[in-house]
Amino acid sequence: MTVQQESESVNVVELRIPCKPEFVSVARLAVAGIANRLHFTVEEIEDVKLAVAEACTNCIQHSPHANEIVLTSEMAPEELRIVVRDNGGGRSGGEESAELGGGRLGIFLIRSLMDDVEYRRDEGAGLFLRMVKRVAGST
Amino acid sequence: MDIKVNVRPADGETRVIDLVGEIDVYTSPAVKDAITQLIDEGHYHLLINLEGVRYIDSTGLGVLIGALKRVREHAGSVSLVCANPQIKKIFDITGLVKIFGIFETEQSAIKALA
Question: Closest to A53 (Cβ–Cβ): which among B24, B86, B89?
Answer without folding.
Answer: B24
